[in-house]
């Protein structure tokens, strides 16, 4: 290289400090404004515009030597920051932009008040890509595979894999104190996200958003089957649209019924609050106006109810998954939060989400099914499969059983029932029946995640899962780990140190690089309970699940940019907020339990505040916490409103206190708030 060629870049480099020199005194003088900008950005508090940073930078640019390196850099940074002020493209719109090819109900289009609403099939979450995450489209694949073992058809049969690596060899209690109630809730979450089409396994008939589709359904016809259409925006009493839930444990159905009640509670409150002064008694409206009012009340109530559901996911559910509830911490990761990174760019949110096949396989938490739920399932499946033993069932038997059950299920959602519960003349199930199912589920410990942990009754379901995964051509466990930046396993004993498991796996798969994803995830060594770990699944699941949790919540427009009082109404917006000091350690589900089963969940009950934790185990954890308020909670099974009334009748002051608590539980936002103040928590 010649001397001149070497000298040119050196000279260029020198130009920058030289061109900055004249501006240095000004920069030093303005330093407090720059520091304020930096600290305000890092802390997320925003910078103080009274320090006139904008003006100072403009002066700096205008006075920099024209065409100097310094002026070029300043200009570039300034324009970049201004451009990054806003996300590109914008995510939130007032209503539906014209030209978006969507099935928008005419009542919604005719409504003069713009508000945003969830489409039945989840479409339009991202208005630029309206079909993103819509029900009925193929799954996404995140990780591709270059493994050829599967290609040559040398995998062991799905049945062998189940019998040797997955079949439960004994019940082990969950190490983190999670209750069966937690998994009933999880079961609603998974039905919200997956519905693998039986005739085309590539398709997912559920939307990729937690929009409470188990309650509302995923098609316009489903949604209409649960709506009353009477001008009040309410659903029929104690119904849900997704009939697959009727195959699930009774506590799962009972919990879903409470979300139906919550919808009706919310719709009624929005109607009575009448914040825009536009609602009228439906009896006074003509048919068209009644339909418009009903649509608005329904859609707003759905928005509030599904955001409430998501707040349970972020508060109670994720709180249990990462062990915060157990450890008495009310701090939560604010996943949907609006944040800028240090380059001033917005970290994306509300941009949509599509569920992947890998996530489907990661979320099959069948090993955690409690002993009580396993017994229930064995009885249920015995009836479903006409007594045929689980070892002999085929995928065709399963599909046939689904067809039979579907035919036997009343078309009218109001006639459906579960666990032989009876509906009253008003169409509602008895509060007592629902409450007892939920109390049982809270008391019943879930099982630990482990290899050889899946109840045998689920054999054919697992065989179908393994077969689907092979048809989907998913990656191997090691490929999946590499995708997430996790160390690849070198041998089977690193994956699961239990010799019974890793020698079996080695015999079946030969090389660790051939270990298929589903089996690898399910039979991997489980994480122990420790600070930061509450769910305690296999190591890989526990890492990868967080990526999907963020994609789901942060990617959903309704949970982020459209989570506003304008859309939810001020009352609805407020109803979805946490109350950090209400005794629930950052949770919110107790509010719904209290209001939908009045009198069954006393204000101080551990069953109300921590239903995802087994009370006796939670009590033990709380005793060990330095500031544990163990005596402020009641830990025994709630006895129901009659008992509460008897207790209250014991003294006049007690009656007064109980009456105000009852008002809070039944009528207001909470059934929780304020009452904890009284208890000194
Ligand atoms: C006793 C409780 C449970 C029963 C009886 C049960 C039963 C079933 C059945 C029958 C299927 C096959 C669905 C089909 O394709 O037709 C299935 C799939 C599945 N299960 Fe479970 N399950 C239970 C609990 C859970 C729990 C607690 C979770 C996780 C939180 C879970 C996650 C899944 C997932 C992700 C699928 C795949 C769904 C799809 O691809 O559409 N299950 N389960
Ligand atoms: Ca959904």
From TrEMBL:
Pfam families: An_peroxidase (PF03098). GO terms for molecular function: dioxygenase activity; heme binding; metal ion binding; peroxidase activity. One of its GO terms (biological process) is fatty acid metabolic process. It comes from the Eukaryota. The keyword Transferase does not apply. Keywords: Dioxygenase, Heme, Iron, Metal-binding, Oxidoreductase. The keyword Oxidoreductase applies. Heme b binds at residue 366. This is Heme peroxidase. It comes from Fomitopsis schrenkii (Brown rot fungus).
